[in-house]
Amino acid sequence: MENGKLRIIVCIKQVPNTNEVKLDPVTGVLLRDGVPSIINPDDLCGIEAALELKDRYGCHVTVISMGPMQADVALREALAMGCDEAYLVSDKLFGGADTWATSRTLAGAAKMLGYDLIITGRQAIDGDTAQVGPQIAEHLGIPQVSYAQDIEKLPEEAALIVQRYYEDRYQKIKIKLPALVTALSTLNTPRYMSVGGVVAAYDDIPVKILKYEDIKDFVDEKDIGLKGSPTRVKKSFTKTAKGQGTLHDAVSEDEAVEIIVSKLKEHYVL
Ligand SMILES: Cc1cc2nc3c(=O)[nH]c(=O)nc-3n(C[C@H](O)[C@H](O)[C@H](O)COP(=O)(O)OP(=O)(O)OC[C@H]3O[C@@H](n4cnc5c(N)ncnc54)[C@H](O)[C@@H]3O)c2cc1C
After folding, report:
1. Does residue 259 belong to any structural domain of this protein?
2. I need a labelling partner for 95 at 20 to 30 A (CA). Which of 88, 102, 144, 224 fits?
3. What are the tens digits of pLDDT across the range 17-63?
């Protein structure tokens, strides 16, 4: 708590505005040229969830992003929506990080900043692993609830009731703070930036840079960047279109089954 206010950290990732990420066929590197960047959609809902808690309980909302300097734009958008502080975790030492090293670094930044609640998106639309949120909670040794579709704070306790999406039903889980929650895009409808917020985001509130030097007491150098990344990418490629396929007319379900079975036999699948 800071001055009696709940401290919320929202982790946001700047992603290309497409879920058809293209890779250089030779180097396997992500091609970002000409693709505009946005805040990852689940993370916008994470920001909105934090701001709704702020509206009701007067929380302090800090937004953090690990990435290159251009992620500054995403952080300013979050400030313009109503977040109080923004940190860009950026250093060439963090380059080449996989999800493990990314989550180690973000956990180190969170430890340095202090928190009662950390909110991440469920999944980023480019990397798509859904690993970073749960890994941050594991590194910090705090409880977590993933797939949140509703978050309520208990007024008298440092605890939340989180409604968690669970296939054909939902679970309601009471979680004591400090804790981490991963937000689904069905959690809420993110608010727009306000005009006053945009002015404040560009004129009044600085985006502070966190380099490794700033968080070195909270994360070991061997756990960051490429050398802290246990994943090795052997090959990456863009999926090619498979073509249209073949259409068959069937007058009944039985005939459709017959056609499918005969085709599978033809290709030695059955
Ligand atoms: C060996 C290897 C090398 C890589 N090298 C690079 C590289 O050089 N440059 C590069 O851009 N990517 C690199 N990546 C990809 C990078 O590791 C992932 O993009 C990153 O770890 C996030 O994983 P994800 O996209 O699957 O996020 P998810 O786990 O799907 O994200 C879940 C949530 O975690 C939070 N989150 C995730 N990432 C961030 C972040 N950076 N900042 C704040 N919050 C975040 C968001 O709230 C997000 O909604 C590399 C990956 C591997 C395996």
Report:
1. no
2. 144
3. 876 667 777 666 667 667 789 999 999 999 999 999 999 999 999 99
What pLDDT, on a 0 to 100 scale, did the predictor assign at position 240? 78
Task: Report how many domains make up the chain.
Answer: 1
Per-residue pLDDT at 103: 98
**AA letter at 138:** E
* 237 located within any domain: no
Q: Is the residue at 131 inside a domain?
A: yes
> What confidence tens digit (pLDDT) does each residue in 67-109 have?
999 999 999 999 999 999 999 999 999 999 999 999 999 999 9
H runs (alpha helix) in the chain:
41-57, 72-81, 99-113, 132-140, 195-199, 212-215, 253-266
Whole-number Å distance, alpha carbon 189 to ligand 1 midpoint, is 24
Q: Determine the distance separating the centroid of ligand 1 and the alpha carbon of 258, expressed in angstroms.
A: 46
Q: CB of 13 closer than 6 A to ligand 1? A: yes
- CATH code, 145: 3.40.50.620
Ligand 1 atom nearest residue 15's Cα: 25
Q: How far is the CA of 164 from the centre of ligand 1 (A)?
A: 23
Protein residue whose Cα sits closest to atom 33 of ligand 1 = 121
pTM of the model: 0.88
Q: How far apart are CA 194 and CA 200, in angstroms?
A: 10
- Which of 10, 124, 125 has the alpha carbon at shortest distance from 78? 10
For residue 83, what are the domain limits? 7-228
